[in-house]
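Internal ticket - ligand job 283, guanosine-5'-triphosphate:
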Amino acid sequence: MCDTCGCSSDGGAVLRKPGESDYHVHVSEGAHGHPHTHSGEELHAVDHHHEMHHDHGDGSHHHDGAVRKVVLEQDVLQKNNLLAERNRGYFEAKNIFVLNFLSSPGSGKTSLLEKIIPLMQQRFPVAVIEGDQQTTNDADRIHALGVEVIQINTGSGCHLDALMVNRAIRELDLQDNSLLCIENVGNLVCPALFDLGEALKVVIISVTEGDDKPLKYPTIFHEADICILNKIDLLPYVEFDAAKCRENALRVNHHLEWFEVSVKSGEGLAEWQEWLEKRLVRH
Ligand SMILES: Nc1nc2c(ncn2[C@@H]2O[C@H](COP(=O)(O)OP(=O)(O)OP(=O)(O)O)[C@@H](O)[C@H]2O)c(=O)[nH]1
Ligand SMILES: [Mg+2]
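stdout (structure tokens):
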């Protein structure tokens, strides 16, 4: 169980396809956990522990909860990374371009997919994996577009991991030379730590969230390749400095590709779509 958000380490994810009955995916031991190995806080705790308990006279070290926790969490991440590489190998073999969409709940991940998929579909086969704690709402929205989609319900889990995606892709009829969009669980923290085997991570932030978010949640912006600022149609009504937000995001990761869009009005979408199409063709 994650100390921070209560994400279960022993649960099973449930996969649902629109129109089909449910089936359970049993997540193997340790694959669905909560690493915080590269949080400075956790590592400081270990260093501190060693400082405090180093000398016991007999040269031994205490190995209490703090130390064991870091070792286990590193193991969880390592297991995930190995499986993510297997997913990546599969995607590369079939020439599938995979995007992992990350954001807080409600920033507009599904809305953005609803806008870009009909256009992408004209040129490439598209499939979608939807991640949410509960409901098939997002999968139903995507299903309405006529593309292959599967919903992963993580229950108390707050992120997708490589094992869940591995199971999901076995259930999808993925075509060669296609686009696969993965919508992660709405959460600006944990999904950033789990490689799924994607080609690119796309982080979405909306103008109602505050322009300081890249500084407060740096990991996700650091890990992302693309940042999309959404809901710019609301800029006149909220206190949000888009230039400052961009500056903050680039301070965390100067390689970020930055786009400003309104999924609602369509502003800025052509630019992002053009960029995506170019990447797909190159791929
Ligand atoms: N004003 C405005 N509203 C938007 C825009 N994009 C999305 N929304 C609204 O934001 C709300 C959340 O959008 P979703 O696409 O469901 O967000 P999400 O990130 O998929 O949410 P979760 O899957 O729950 O994490 C919906 O009511 C959308 O209509 C936008 O550009 N402008
Ligand atoms: Mg959604």
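Auto-summary: Confidence is low (pLDDT under 50) at residues 1-6, 23-63. The radius of gyration is 20 Å.
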